[in-house]
Amino acid sequence: MRRTPICLTISACAITCAVICAVQSVARADAPADAPAATISASPLLEQLSAETEALYAQTRVGLVRVYLPPPKWALNLMGQDFTLKRWDLSLDQSANTKLTADLEKTASQRYIDATITPRQPATQPAERSFRLVPRGDGAFEMVTETGEDRAVIDVSPRSIGVVVDSIGHVLLPYYIEREAIGDQPLTVACGDGTVCGATFVGSDRQTALTVLKLERPSSERAMPMNGRRPADGALTMFLNITGEAGRLTVWTGSQQDSGIVINVRGEVAGFLRQGQFLDAARCEPVVTQIITQGATSRPVLGVFLREVFPADPARRENPALGTRPAVMVMKVLHNSAADAAGLREGDLILTLGGEAVGDPPSFAASMTEKRGPTVLRVLRDQQSLDISVNLKPRDSERR
To answer: The domain spanning residue 354 has which CATH number?
Structure first.
Protein backbone atom coordinates (compact mmCIF):
# COMPACT_ATOMS: atom_id res chain seq x y z
CA MET A 1 0.00 0.00 0.00
CA ARG A 2 1.35 3.39 -0.95
CA ARG A 3 2.36 5.48 2.02
CA THR A 4 1.06 9.02 1.91
CA PRO A 5 3.37 11.62 3.44
CA ILE A 6 1.53 13.48 6.13
CA CYS A 7 3.98 15.69 7.95
CA LEU A 8 5.11 17.52 4.84
CA THR A 9 1.72 19.20 4.80
CA ILE A 10 1.97 20.46 8.35
CA SER A 11 1.13 24.08 8.99
CA ALA A 12 3.63 26.91 9.19
CA CYS A 13 2.91 27.05 12.90
CA ALA A 14 3.89 23.40 13.33
CA ILE A 15 7.11 23.91 11.38
CA THR A 16 7.92 26.92 13.55
CA CYS A 17 7.35 24.81 16.65
CA ALA A 18 9.65 22.14 15.23
CA VAL A 19 12.41 24.68 14.66
CA ILE A 20 11.98 26.05 18.18
CA CYS A 21 12.21 22.52 19.56
CA ALA A 22 15.38 21.92 17.54
CA VAL A 23 16.96 25.15 18.84
CA GLN A 24 16.04 24.23 22.38
CA SER A 25 17.54 20.77 21.89
CA VAL A 26 20.79 22.32 20.65
CA ALA A 27 20.84 24.69 23.59
CA ARG A 28 20.38 21.77 25.96
CA ALA A 29 23.16 19.89 24.15
CA ASP A 30 25.50 22.79 24.95
CA ALA A 31 24.67 22.57 28.65
CA PRO A 32 27.42 21.67 31.13
CA ALA A 33 28.48 18.03 31.17
CA ASP A 34 27.18 17.58 34.70
CA ALA A 35 23.69 18.78 33.74
CA PRO A 36 20.93 16.25 34.53
CA ALA A 37 20.28 13.87 31.63
CA ALA A 38 16.55 14.48 31.92
CA THR A 39 16.98 18.03 30.58
CA ILE A 40 18.20 16.73 27.16
CA SER A 41 15.52 15.30 24.88
CA ALA A 42 14.90 14.83 21.17
CA SER A 43 12.24 16.66 19.17
CA PRO A 44 9.49 14.18 18.25
CA LEU A 45 8.12 16.55 15.63
CA LEU A 46 11.46 16.86 13.83
CA GLU A 47 11.97 13.11 14.03
CA GLN A 48 8.56 12.56 12.47
CA LEU A 49 9.26 15.15 9.79
CA SER A 50 12.58 13.45 9.02
CA ALA A 51 10.86 10.07 8.75
CA GLU A 52 8.29 11.46 6.34
CA THR A 53 11.04 13.10 4.25
CA GLU A 54 12.85 9.76 4.05
CA ALA A 55 9.63 8.09 2.92
CA LEU A 56 9.04 10.76 0.27
CA TYR A 57 12.58 10.44 -1.09
CA ALA A 58 12.37 6.63 -1.13
CA GLN A 59 9.08 6.86 -3.03
CA THR A 60 10.65 9.27 -5.53
CA ARG A 61 14.07 7.67 -6.00
CA VAL A 62 12.70 4.54 -7.66
CA GLY A 63 11.52 6.65 -10.59
CA LEU A 64 14.73 8.60 -11.09
CA VAL A 65 18.02 7.78 -12.80
CA ARG A 66 21.34 9.55 -13.22
CA VAL A 67 22.73 9.78 -16.74
CA TYR A 68 26.42 10.23 -17.53
CA LEU A 69 26.56 12.30 -20.69
CA PRO A 70 29.37 12.11 -23.25
CA PRO A 71 32.38 14.36 -22.70
CA PRO A 72 32.52 17.41 -24.95
CA LYS A 73 34.41 17.37 -28.21
CA TRP A 74 37.41 19.09 -26.75
CA ALA A 75 38.22 15.91 -24.78
CA LEU A 76 39.05 14.19 -28.08
CA ASN A 77 41.66 16.85 -28.80
CA LEU A 78 42.48 17.32 -25.18
CA MET A 79 45.82 19.03 -25.11
CA GLY A 80 45.47 20.96 -28.36
CA GLN A 81 42.44 23.08 -27.44
CA ASP A 82 41.54 25.49 -24.63
CA PHE A 83 42.75 23.20 -21.88
CA THR A 84 44.39 24.07 -18.57
CA LEU A 85 47.82 23.03 -19.87
CA LYS A 86 47.49 25.62 -22.65
CA ARG A 87 48.64 28.25 -20.20
CA TRP A 88 52.05 26.53 -20.28
CA ASP A 89 52.07 26.77 -24.08
CA LEU A 90 52.31 23.01 -24.46
CA SER A 91 51.03 20.80 -27.26
CA LEU A 92 50.40 17.15 -28.02
CA ASP A 93 52.95 15.14 -29.92
CA GLN A 94 51.87 14.10 -33.43
CA SER A 95 50.48 10.67 -32.52
CA ALA A 96 48.38 11.86 -29.55
CA ASN A 97 45.08 12.43 -31.38
CA THR A 98 45.03 8.89 -32.75
CA LYS A 99 45.91 7.52 -29.31
CA LEU A 100 43.19 9.61 -27.61
CA THR A 101 40.54 8.38 -30.01
CA ALA A 102 41.57 4.76 -29.52
CA ASP A 103 41.55 5.16 -25.74
CA LEU A 104 38.08 6.70 -25.74
CA GLU A 105 36.72 3.72 -27.67
CA LYS A 106 37.72 1.29 -24.92
CA THR A 107 35.14 -0.10 -22.55
CA ALA A 108 34.35 1.83 -19.40
CA SER A 109 36.43 -0.52 -17.23
CA GLN A 110 39.48 -0.24 -19.51
CA ARG A 111 39.18 3.36 -20.60
CA TYR A 112 41.92 5.84 -19.91
CA ILE A 113 43.71 8.50 -21.94
CA ASP A 114 47.46 8.78 -22.33
CA ALA A 115 49.05 11.91 -23.74
CA THR A 116 52.62 13.15 -23.99
CA ILE A 117 53.15 16.90 -24.05
CA THR A 118 56.30 18.63 -25.21
CA PRO A 119 57.30 22.26 -24.73
CA ARG A 120 57.16 24.52 -27.77
CA GLN A 121 60.12 26.53 -26.45
CA PRO A 122 62.44 24.06 -24.72
CA ALA A 123 64.74 26.82 -23.51
CA THR A 124 62.03 28.40 -21.36
CA GLN A 125 59.58 25.57 -20.71
CA PRO A 126 59.78 22.50 -18.44
CA ALA A 127 60.95 19.16 -19.71
CA GLU A 128 58.66 16.76 -21.54
CA ARG A 129 56.13 15.07 -19.27
CA SER A 130 53.53 12.34 -19.78
CA PHE A 131 50.04 12.53 -18.36
CA ARG A 132 47.20 10.05 -18.09
CA LEU A 133 43.50 10.88 -17.85
CA VAL A 134 41.51 8.26 -15.95
CA PRO A 135 37.70 8.57 -15.85
CA ARG A 136 36.05 8.53 -12.43
CA GLY A 137 32.65 7.20 -11.51
CA ASP A 138 31.26 10.71 -11.11
CA GLY A 139 31.95 11.62 -14.73
CA ALA A 140 35.14 13.56 -14.09
CA PHE A 141 38.68 12.70 -15.22
CA GLU A 142 41.70 12.44 -12.96
CA MET A 143 44.85 13.74 -14.64
CA VAL A 144 47.99 12.15 -13.22
CA THR A 145 51.61 11.94 -14.29
CA GLU A 146 53.18 8.57 -14.96
CA THR A 147 54.97 8.84 -11.61
CA GLY A 148 51.77 9.84 -9.84
CA GLU A 149 53.42 12.94 -8.36
CA ASP A 150 50.91 15.38 -9.82
CA ARG A 151 47.17 14.83 -9.74
CA ALA A 152 44.21 17.00 -10.71
CA VAL A 153 40.49 16.35 -11.16
CA ILE A 154 38.91 17.67 -14.36
CA ASP A 155 35.13 17.58 -14.68
CA VAL A 156 34.49 17.14 -18.41
CA SER A 157 31.47 14.85 -18.48
CA PRO A 158 28.21 16.50 -17.50
CA ARG A 159 25.63 14.51 -15.59
CA SER A 160 21.87 14.88 -15.54
CA ILE A 161 19.12 13.44 -13.42
CA GLY A 162 16.38 11.77 -15.46
CA VAL A 163 12.77 10.74 -14.89
CA VAL A 164 11.42 7.33 -15.93
CA VAL A 165 8.19 8.12 -17.79
CA ASP A 166 6.85 4.69 -18.77
CA SER A 167 7.14 0.98 -18.05
CA ILE A 168 9.34 0.22 -21.07
CA GLY A 169 12.19 2.42 -19.91
CA HIS A 170 11.87 5.81 -21.59
CA VAL A 171 13.71 8.45 -19.58
CA LEU A 172 13.18 12.22 -19.75
CA LEU A 173 16.16 14.51 -19.14
CA PRO A 174 15.71 18.25 -18.42
CA TYR A 175 18.83 18.74 -20.52
CA TYR A 176 19.19 19.29 -24.28
CA ILE A 177 21.48 16.90 -26.14
CA GLU A 178 22.03 16.98 -29.89
CA ARG A 179 21.73 13.67 -31.69
CA GLU A 180 25.17 14.23 -33.24
CA ALA A 181 26.74 14.40 -29.76
CA ILE A 182 25.69 10.80 -29.01
CA GLY A 183 24.91 8.97 -32.23
CA ASP A 184 24.65 5.24 -31.56
CA GLN A 185 26.92 5.40 -28.53
CA PRO A 186 25.13 4.00 -25.44
CA LEU A 187 25.14 6.24 -22.39
CA THR A 188 25.80 4.99 -18.88
CA VAL A 189 22.84 5.25 -16.50
CA ALA A 190 22.83 4.74 -12.74
CA CYS A 191 19.33 3.54 -11.81
CA GLY A 192 17.43 4.17 -8.63
CA ASP A 193 17.80 0.55 -7.51
CA GLY A 194 21.60 0.87 -7.51
CA THR A 195 22.20 -0.97 -10.80
CA VAL A 196 23.96 0.45 -13.86
CA CYS A 197 22.84 -0.01 -17.45
CA GLY A 198 23.05 1.61 -20.87
CA ALA A 199 20.61 3.93 -22.59
CA THR A 200 20.20 4.95 -26.22
CA PHE A 201 19.21 8.31 -27.65
CA VAL A 202 15.59 8.66 -28.81
CA GLY A 203 15.24 12.36 -29.54
CA SER A 204 15.41 15.88 -28.14
CA ASP A 205 13.70 19.25 -28.39
CA ARG A 206 15.81 22.40 -28.38
CA GLN A 207 12.96 24.85 -27.60
CA THR A 208 12.06 23.13 -24.34
CA ALA A 209 15.58 21.79 -23.63
CA LEU A 210 14.32 18.23 -23.14
CA THR A 211 15.85 14.91 -24.21
CA VAL A 212 14.41 11.38 -24.20
CA LEU A 213 16.52 8.25 -23.82
CA LYS A 214 15.55 4.57 -23.62
CA LEU A 215 17.09 2.15 -21.17
CA GLU A 216 18.64 -0.92 -22.82
CA ARG A 217 16.91 -3.32 -20.44
CA PRO A 218 13.30 -3.37 -19.24
CA SER A 219 12.86 -0.77 -16.56
CA SER A 220 12.61 -1.91 -12.97
CA GLU A 221 11.98 1.66 -11.92
CA ARG A 222 8.53 3.03 -11.26
CA ALA A 223 7.26 5.45 -13.87
CA MET A 224 6.85 8.91 -12.35
CA PRO A 225 3.54 10.76 -12.80
CA MET A 226 4.07 13.58 -15.31
CA ASN A 227 0.93 15.55 -14.52
CA GLY A 228 2.43 17.92 -11.96
CA ARG A 229 2.05 21.68 -12.09
CA ARG A 230 3.93 24.69 -10.77
CA PRO A 231 3.78 24.73 -6.95
CA ALA A 232 1.89 27.52 -5.22
CA ASP A 233 4.10 30.19 -3.65
CA GLY A 234 4.91 29.09 -0.12
CA ALA A 235 4.37 25.37 -0.83
CA LEU A 236 6.81 22.90 0.67
CA THR A 237 8.68 20.98 -2.04
CA MET A 238 11.61 18.63 -2.46
CA PHE A 239 14.29 19.89 -4.84
CA LEU A 240 16.89 17.61 -6.44
CA ASN A 241 19.66 19.38 -8.33
CA ILE A 242 20.39 18.69 -12.00
CA THR A 243 23.10 16.11 -11.25
CA GLY A 244 20.98 14.26 -8.71
CA GLU A 245 23.82 14.53 -6.20
CA ALA A 246 22.17 16.96 -3.79
CA GLY A 247 18.68 17.70 -2.60
CA ARG A 248 16.77 19.73 -0.05
CA LEU A 249 13.35 20.57 1.28
CA THR A 250 12.47 24.12 0.34
CA VAL A 251 9.66 26.63 0.47
CA TRP A 252 8.73 27.45 -3.11
CA THR A 253 9.09 31.17 -3.82
CA GLY A 254 8.66 31.04 -7.59
CA SER A 255 12.03 32.62 -8.34
CA GLN A 256 14.66 30.04 -7.34
CA GLN A 257 17.86 30.46 -9.34
CA ASP A 258 18.85 26.81 -9.56
CA SER A 259 18.54 23.84 -11.91
CA GLY A 260 16.95 20.49 -11.17
CA ILE A 261 13.70 18.62 -10.52
CA VAL A 262 10.95 19.85 -8.20
CA ILE A 263 8.93 17.14 -6.39
CA ASN A 264 5.67 17.93 -4.62
CA VAL A 265 4.62 16.44 -1.27
CA ARG A 266 2.64 13.72 -3.06
CA GLY A 267 5.80 12.36 -4.65
CA GLU A 268 4.93 13.65 -8.14
CA VAL A 269 7.26 15.53 -10.48
CA ALA A 270 5.94 19.09 -10.35
CA GLY A 271 8.33 20.23 -13.06
CA PHE A 272 11.85 21.23 -14.03
CA LEU A 273 13.65 24.31 -12.79
CA ARG A 274 16.37 25.85 -14.98
CA GLN A 275 17.91 28.96 -13.42
CA GLY A 276 14.60 30.60 -12.58
CA GLN A 277 12.62 29.20 -15.52
CA PHE A 278 10.09 26.55 -14.52
CA LEU A 279 8.55 24.04 -16.92
CA ASP A 280 5.48 22.21 -15.64
CA ALA A 281 5.74 18.42 -15.89
CA ALA A 282 2.23 18.30 -17.38
CA ARG A 283 3.34 20.49 -20.29
CA CYS A 284 6.20 18.12 -21.04
CA GLU A 285 3.87 15.20 -21.76
CA PRO A 286 2.98 16.09 -25.38
CA VAL A 287 6.64 16.88 -26.08
CA VAL A 288 7.72 13.51 -24.70
CA THR A 289 4.96 11.68 -26.60
CA GLN A 290 6.02 13.23 -29.92
CA ILE A 291 9.69 12.45 -29.33
CA ILE A 292 8.91 8.81 -28.49
CA THR A 293 6.56 8.29 -31.44
CA GLN A 294 8.29 10.47 -34.06
CA GLY A 295 11.85 10.94 -32.82
CA ALA A 296 11.35 14.71 -32.76
CA THR A 297 8.76 17.38 -31.99
CA SER A 298 6.58 19.20 -34.46
CA ARG A 299 4.79 22.43 -33.57
CA PRO A 300 3.20 25.21 -35.60
CA VAL A 301 5.01 28.50 -36.14
CA LEU A 302 3.52 31.57 -34.52
CA GLY A 303 6.08 33.88 -36.08
CA VAL A 304 7.40 35.90 -33.14
CA PHE A 305 10.59 36.39 -31.15
CA LEU A 306 9.91 36.30 -27.43
CA ARG A 307 11.72 37.08 -24.21
CA GLU A 308 10.89 36.39 -20.60
CA VAL A 309 9.64 39.23 -18.40
CA PHE A 310 11.56 38.81 -15.14
CA PRO A 311 10.24 39.91 -11.72
CA ALA A 312 12.40 43.06 -11.69
CA ASP A 313 12.00 43.75 -15.42
CA PRO A 314 11.50 47.44 -16.34
CA ALA A 315 8.46 46.30 -18.35
CA ARG A 316 6.66 45.66 -15.08
CA ARG A 317 7.19 49.25 -13.97
CA GLU A 318 6.01 50.50 -17.34
CA ASN A 319 2.95 48.21 -17.24
CA PRO A 320 1.55 48.27 -13.67
CA ALA A 321 -1.43 46.21 -14.81
CA LEU A 322 0.94 43.27 -15.30
CA GLY A 323 1.71 43.04 -11.59
CA THR A 324 3.47 39.81 -10.68
CA ARG A 325 1.83 37.67 -13.36
CA PRO A 326 4.14 35.60 -15.59
CA ALA A 327 4.45 36.89 -19.15
CA VAL A 328 6.59 36.87 -22.28
CA MET A 329 7.18 39.97 -24.37
CA VAL A 330 6.93 40.05 -28.16
CA MET A 331 10.23 41.43 -29.44
CA LYS A 332 9.58 40.98 -33.15
CA VAL A 333 6.71 39.86 -35.39
CA LEU A 334 7.64 38.11 -38.62
CA HIS A 335 6.00 39.36 -41.80
CA ASN A 336 3.21 37.18 -43.22
CA SER A 337 3.21 34.96 -40.14
CA ALA A 338 0.24 33.76 -38.08
CA ALA A 339 1.08 36.40 -35.48
CA ASP A 340 1.20 39.11 -38.13
CA ALA A 341 -2.18 38.07 -39.53
CA ALA A 342 -3.71 38.09 -36.04
CA GLY A 343 -2.45 41.60 -35.28
CA LEU A 344 0.18 40.90 -32.64
CA ARG A 345 2.59 43.81 -32.15
CA GLU A 346 6.07 44.33 -30.82
CA GLY A 347 5.89 45.10 -27.11
CA ASP A 348 2.76 43.00 -26.52
CA LEU A 349 2.88 41.02 -23.28
CA ILE A 350 1.49 37.51 -23.76
CA LEU A 351 -0.07 36.21 -20.55
CA THR A 352 -1.73 32.97 -21.66
CA LEU A 353 -1.75 30.65 -24.66
CA GLY A 354 -4.92 28.62 -25.04
CA GLY A 355 -5.76 29.37 -21.41
CA GLU A 356 -2.35 28.30 -20.03
CA ALA A 357 -0.12 30.86 -18.32
CA VAL A 358 3.21 31.32 -20.09
CA GLY A 359 6.13 32.98 -18.36
CA ASP A 360 9.17 31.96 -20.38
CA PRO A 361 10.02 30.72 -23.91
CA PRO A 362 10.40 27.00 -22.95
CA SER A 363 6.93 26.96 -21.36
CA PHE A 364 5.54 28.77 -24.40
CA ALA A 365 7.12 26.24 -26.75
CA ALA A 366 5.79 23.33 -24.68
CA SER A 367 2.27 24.80 -24.77
CA MET A 368 2.52 25.23 -28.54
CA THR A 369 3.30 21.55 -29.13
CA GLU A 370 -0.29 20.34 -29.47
CA LYS A 371 -1.91 23.59 -30.56
CA ARG A 372 -3.48 23.73 -34.03
CA GLY A 373 -6.15 25.94 -35.58
CA PRO A 374 -7.71 29.02 -33.90
CA THR A 375 -6.03 29.55 -30.52
CA VAL A 376 -6.63 32.44 -28.12
CA LEU A 377 -3.77 34.52 -26.75
CA ARG A 378 -4.45 36.74 -23.74
CA VAL A 379 -2.32 39.84 -24.33
CA LEU A 380 -1.63 42.95 -22.27
CA ARG A 381 -1.31 46.02 -24.49
CA ASP A 382 -1.36 49.63 -23.28
CA GLN A 383 -2.56 48.46 -19.85
CA GLN A 384 -5.53 46.68 -21.44
CA SER A 385 -6.11 42.93 -21.63
CA LEU A 386 -7.01 41.67 -25.10
CA ASP A 387 -7.98 38.24 -26.40
CA ILE A 388 -6.38 37.71 -29.82
CA SER A 389 -7.17 34.61 -31.87
CA VAL A 390 -4.32 33.24 -33.96
CA ASN A 391 -4.74 30.53 -36.58
CA LEU A 392 -1.93 28.08 -35.86
CA LYS A 393 -1.30 26.03 -38.98
CA PRO A 394 0.84 22.91 -39.15
CA ARG A 395 4.25 23.17 -40.70
CA ASP A 396 4.58 22.21 -44.34
CA SER A 397 6.32 18.98 -43.31
CA GLU A 398 3.19 17.96 -41.35
CA ARG A 399 0.92 18.39 -44.35
CA ARG A 400 2.84 15.93 -46.47
So the answer is: 2.30.42.10
Q: Domain limits at 86? A: 71-154
Per-residue pLDDT of the chain (400 residues; tens, 9 = 90+): 444 443 333 344 444 444 444 444 444 445 455 555 555 566 888 888 889 889 988 888 888 888 888 765 544 444 444 444 444 334 445 565 566 556 555 544 444 445 555 555 554 555 555 666 555 544 455 666 655 555 555 555 578 889 999 888 899 999 888 888 787 888 888 887 778 888 999 999 999 999 999 998 765 668 888 888 999 989 999 999 888 888 889 999 877 788 889 999 888 899 999 888 899 999 999 999 999 999 889 899 999 999 999 888 899 999 999 998 999 999 999 999 999 999 999 999 999 999 999 989 999 999 999 899 999 999 999 989 999 999 998 876 454 4
Which helix (H) or strand (E) covers residue 25, if one does? Answer: helix 12-29
Residue 316: φ, ψ to 5°: -75, -35
What Rg value do the Cα atoms of the chain yield, rounded? 26
Total residue count of the chain as it appears in this document: 400
Same domain membership, residue 174 and residue 288:
yes
CATH of the domain at 276: 2.40.10.120
Question: Cα–Cα distance between 218 and 118 in angstroms, integer?
Answer: 49
In a domain, 256, yes or no: yes
Alpha-helical runs (H) found in 35-178: 44-61, 96-104
This prediction has a pTM of: 0.69
Residues 150 and 166 placed together within one structural domain of the fold = no
